[in-house]
Write a structure and sequence with these properties.
The protein has about 140 residues and is an alpha+beta fold. The protein has one domain: Nuclear Transport Factor 2, Chain: A (Roll). Strands 2-1-6-5-4-3 form a six-stranded mixed beta sheet. β5 and β6 form a beta hairpin. The longest helix is centred in the N-terminal third of the chain and has 44 residues. It is elongated, with a radius of gyration of 22 Å. The protein starts with a helix and ends with a strand.
Amino acid sequence: MSDFCLNLLPIMKKLDFIKSIVLIFVVFIQLSFTAVPDDLNKALETGNVSVLKQNMNSTVELVIFEKENVYSKIQAEQILKQFFQTHAPISFKILHNGQSDNSQYYIGLLKTQKGTYRVYYLLKTKDRTTLLYQLRIENNE
């Protein structure tokens, strides 16, 4: 090998190391973004209000049918408990999702013993923390 190639060898090893670090970082970021929606989807499917509350911002816009307001986590928890007590969930399926800047949204269908409802929720990421800012449960018309 020429001296030129031998001099490039350490540089190539460093580049491979940097590529590996970047790949690990990207995978870690991707996994952290998918953990919250997976938890929320499972919580909606099972009616687990505790998990929903854990992932809420300190205030959350909550819309259930025609009732809409901004609530504290504790208030939202009580309202959701009442909803799931009267609408026992059977399944939840995501139909569509998207993102822009530091926000992610999900649209799905919640099947309960009383009917099927359209669910929309909005997540925002601030300071590396992803939280639920809006949850809508509406009649599926």
